[in-house]
């Protein structure tokens, strides 16, 4: 799918506003038939328009009140192995490969400062990791969102 038409954009905007909306609710909200919404949803899903449907779960009640970002510098030839090893650490909730001076940005949750120190040590022990820089997250100021993009004309 090269782009989204106005119906696709309206459907995606409605889902961004209410991710739990049923097909019937979406059809009512957009004044479309249920079959049209189902067909559009199937086409959007087949095209890869939707990211993971895994629920966002707050880690605080699980005992992980702190979040941090660990910048990881790696030997480039070992990047794939480093990523595989980092993925085995349960406290790692996300990681991105970056261009520039930092190779990986790893998002972790932890119980306290000692736990963060331990997690950082586990990452540093991975063969191919040269060094890390750790920043404690002070709070999420802008959550993940796409609604503003969907609201743009284009």
UniProtKB/TrEMBL annotation:
It comes from Agromyces mariniharenae. Residues 4-65 form the HTH asnC-type domain. Pfam families: AsnC_trans_reg, HTH_AsnC-type. This is Lrp/AsnC family transcriptional regulator. Keywords: DNA-binding, Transcription, Transcription regulation. The keyword Endoplasmic reticulum does not apply. Gene3D superfamilies: 3.30.70.920, Winged helix-like DNA-binding domain superfamily/Winged helix DNA-binding domain (1.10.10.10). One of its GO terms (biological process) is response to amino acid.
